[in-house]
Amino acid sequence: GGDHTITYPILQAVAEKHGPVGLVHVDAHTDTGDTALGEKIYHGTPFRRCVEEGLLDCRRVVQIGIRGSSYDPDPYKYCRDQGFRVVPAEQCWSKSLEPLMGEVRQQMGDKPVYLSFDIDGLDPAYAPGTGTPEIAGLTPAQALEIIRGCKGLNIVGCDLVEVAPMYDVSGNTALLGANLLFEMLCILPGVKT
């Protein structure tokens, strides 16, 4: 729950304990904007603030499912300039993400990793209850492949954000979000499944 702004103070606390961490970030948006309406902290800026504060090991950041509207003609430039791996949604269409997650596990190694999952990473056909839906997103099966593909990583924290049940009369978004959180709990180090 909550919007993606919550990840910023969480990563401040995580980095205080573990140092800069890797990040597996599932989202329709990179959330690396600089400001909105003059504000530096909002749900579209948390990962820029994290970079500025040295909270992320930028060589171990991967963003999956990125797509949709942007205010910039090259919306992924900032991310690439930081060393992030950006996997646009169109590179995920109609295929299993297990091979991608094998590459991600190699990239993350055995150092601390944080998993941040914005529900709008999924197509709004499955998860319409969010404030910034973008068409042509990931499927629930791909979401499970991503989360389960993180099993064995040194996960030191995770979140699932941007669920807005009032935008979904069916309740499917909340159901999907709860199941994805359960899956995240199952991949935490030391959990026997």
From TrEMBL:
One family name in Pfam for this protein: Arginase
Electron transport keyword on record: no
Record key words, sorted: Hydrolase, Metal-binding
Signal peptide stretch: none
Name of the gene this protein is made from: Agmat
Organism the protein comes from: Zapornia atra
Protein name: SPEB protein
GO molecular-function terms, A-Z: agmatinase activity; metal ion binding
GO biological process: putrescine biosynthetic process from arginine, via agmatine
Record-stated family: Belongs to the arginase family. Agmatinase subfamily.
